[in-house]
Design brief:
With about 140 residues, the chain is an alpha/beta fold. Helices cover about 25% and strands about 40% of the residues.
Length: about 140
Amino acid sequence: MRALVQRVSEAAVRVDGETLGEIGPGMLILVCAMQGDDDGKPKALAEKLSKLRIFQDEAGKMNRSLRDVGGSALVVSQFTLAADTSRGNRPGFSTAAPPAEGERLYEMFAGEVAALGIPTARGRFGADMKVSLVNDGPVTIWVEV
């Protein structure tokens, strides 16, 4: 699984003008299931991200995790993280998991994040979503498991 993580002051996801999920301080997690990902990947990614030390401590150093700061997570599926741009000008997405498998792994991942005690909001798999955020830092990190 791949994730693009952004430390945010706030973030929200909307579909057709309806807010599906919104958070205050925490992480916006854009996530993509890849071909060959198994059922262990969602849990491994959730655990890794919950411990990722990207939040500031008292000295201003990135030394605290999402769990340490009591932050929230907004989990949004984004198959375009599988983009292959090595040839031509049009990205290819053939390395992304097929839609049904991608949705199942996405839902598993969001469930694993919530099971860690992190307040979790989410988007809607496959929907045309509008994501808004205030990137804090800015801090944006690419993670794969």
